[in-house]
């Protein structure tokens, strides 16, 4: 197994950090390798705003629903959909930018942000750091817009922690996935395999959590219901519109 496959096969979210610093050289390398990721039409419509400031980390932790591990990480990175920078290019040739007013624009931004998040995390992990993606930034989007001074045509979509993992966190068991045949389909989607797989996963997940002392919430089905019977964030439409975005077909 080569080193890349080994690293990806052992990937996990880590929420326990030692408090050791990240060197400036490592941080720069992590950010620069994230910037190397592909972007739709080479638009480069993602920017990063990051902070190492302890007071800001504490504030971010609170804004993300009091997630303790954010307070204890070394760097918090926000992935921002950024059509502001591109609008300057269009302005300079007398063109009006409309992409942020379309569903396509939001989807492009979301896909590109996800790709960059993954690149950044892989890069950080290859240097011995650990990360967790933070979608909970969308619990308080307006506060993040203020905190990071985000102009119109930008949107704070998702974040990531970076820190040095504790030994215990590094060695924690990997969270199981749905059976492979219910995930990867050759030639066409198979709903029978999807259904069988998700039922099987309910058992796999229960056993995993019971075995690892996490049986306070053992059911995947119930966990999903707690998130997916409603939208668990708020003000998403309102905050996108506030930033100059709309989610509609442009033609
Ligand atoms: C877009 C996205 C947002 C996430 N948001 C959070 C978050 O706010 N807090 C958190 O602790 N984990 C968050 N996670 C991590 C997931 O909970 C985690 O990936 C999942 O439980 C699987 O565990 P694993 O990454 O250890 O395999 C997020 C993951 C993704 C991809």
UniProtKB/TrEMBL annotation:
Pfam families cross-referenced by the UniProt entry: Nitroreductase
Gene Ontology terms for molecular function: oxidoreductase activity
Protein name according to UniProt: NADPH-dependent oxidoreductase
UniProt xrefs under SUPFAM superfamilies: FMN-dependent nitroreductase-like
Superkingdom of the organism of origin: Bacteria
PANTHER family with a match to the protein in the record: OXYGEN-INSENSITIVE NADPH NITROREDUCTASE
Domain Nitroreductase as annotated: residue spans: 9-162
Keywords: Flavoprotein, FMN, NADP, Oxidoreductase
């Amino acid at each position: 197994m080569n080193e890349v496959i080994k690293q990806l096969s052992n990937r996990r979210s880590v929420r326990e950090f030692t408090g050791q610093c990240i060197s400036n050289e490592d941080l720069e390398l992590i950010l620069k390798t994230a910037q190397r990721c592909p972007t739709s039409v080479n638009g480069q419509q993602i920017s990063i705003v990051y902070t190492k400031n302890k007071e800001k980390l504490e504030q971010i932790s609170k804004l993300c629903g009091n997630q303790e591990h954010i307070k204890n990480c070394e760097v918090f990175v926000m992935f921002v959909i950024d059509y502001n920078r591109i609008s300057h290019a269009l302005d300079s040739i007398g063109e009006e930018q409309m992409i942020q007013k379309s569903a396509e624009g939001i989807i492009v931004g979301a896909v590109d942000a996800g790709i960059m998040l993954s690149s950044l995390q892989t890069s950080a992990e290859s240097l011995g750091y650990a990360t967790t993606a933070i979608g909970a930034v969308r619990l308080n989007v307006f506060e993040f817009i203020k905190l990071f001074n985000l102009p119109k045509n930008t949107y704070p979509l998702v974040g990531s922690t970076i820190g040095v993992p504790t030994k215990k966190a590094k060695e924690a068991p990997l969270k199981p996935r749905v059976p492979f045949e219910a995930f990867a389909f050759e030639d066409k989607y198979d709903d029978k395999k999807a259904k069988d797989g998700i039922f099987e996963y309910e058992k796999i997940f229960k056993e995993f959590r019971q075995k690892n002392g996490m049986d306070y919430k053992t059911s995947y089905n119930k966990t999903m219901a707690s998130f997916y019977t409603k939208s668990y964030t708020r003000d998403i439409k309102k905050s996108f519109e506030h930033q100059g975005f709309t989610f509609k077909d442009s033609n």
